[in-house]
Amino acid sequence: MNKPAVSISLSSYGADLVRQRGQGSFIEVLAAAGASHIEWREELLTCEDPAQLAAAAEKQGLQSVYSSPMELWLAGQSKPNAQLSSALQRAQAFGAKWLKVSLGYFTDNSDLQNLARLLNESPVQLLVENDQTLHGGRIEPFQRFFAAVEQYSLPIKMTFDIGNWQWQDQSAASAARLLGRHVGYVHCKAVIRRTDGKLVAMPPATADVQAWEHLLRHMAQGVMRAAEYPLQGDDLVQVTCEHVATLAHLGQAQLESAHV
Question: pTM, whole model, 2 decimals?
């Protein structure tokens, strides 16, 4: 039975440590821990060389996802973000097959034909994520966006961030039911509310993993999934290995029962 693709978002190791060590220093950690993909984080880059990171990741058998904090649609503009073309080029330079961005301000006036032309010029596939904002973190704009994506037959999938829905009091279960067929990448993270009222990402408890199982039933079998929550400890390989195993097992019980 094929093991699902498991990615690690490098932000999981903490912004300070990642900037201090450089993103390339985590390649061997992920490979040793059994991850299949590495998610480069644009906002945590310092002086890394894209070609060197791409070659090092490939040597270790890791495929790459490139995460940019840019929004696909800016407020008041019908054309896609002018930064998209350069973001696709950066993703390609990092050896990434996927570029992850946020949805931004999608409206009925958004120019999908212009977006199609940009994507046709790049081998990189676009992944559009629900973020924590009012305009880009709610279910309804994604329903409208992917209806338009289907209408224009665009090669775009969704990054479904399980935890981010909570920032806008949205139901992850409802989102999975309504958007699951569009998902190509799942960001896994548990979320708690601190005593000061702030929501923060956390590693999953057993109940979280069980809830994730139900969400993935609405998505393609073996959909690529990633850890995007704190991975901390004295032995990062061991910690990462444990979470890679947990994420790889998501959805497998359902598959096994189907083969009985």
Answer: 0.95
CATH assignment of the domain containing 200: 3.20.20.150
Residue 159 placed within a domain: yes
Host H or E run for residue 125:
strand 125-129
Indicate whether 137 belongs to any domain.
yes
Alpha-carbon gap, residue 106 to 49, rounded angstroms: 33
Amino acid at 186: V
**DSSP β-ladder status, 190-193 and 199-202:** antiparallel
- Taking alpha carbons only, the member of 29, 18, 25 closest to residue 243 is 29
C-alpha 74/C-alpha 88 separation (Å) is: 17
User: 13 by DSSP, 3-state: which?
Assistant: helix
- Chain segment 13-26, per-residue pLDDT in tens: 999 999 999 999 99
Q: Is residue 237 part of a domain?
A: yes
Q: How far apart are CA 10 and CA 40, in angstroms?
A: 6
In a domain, 1, yes or no: no
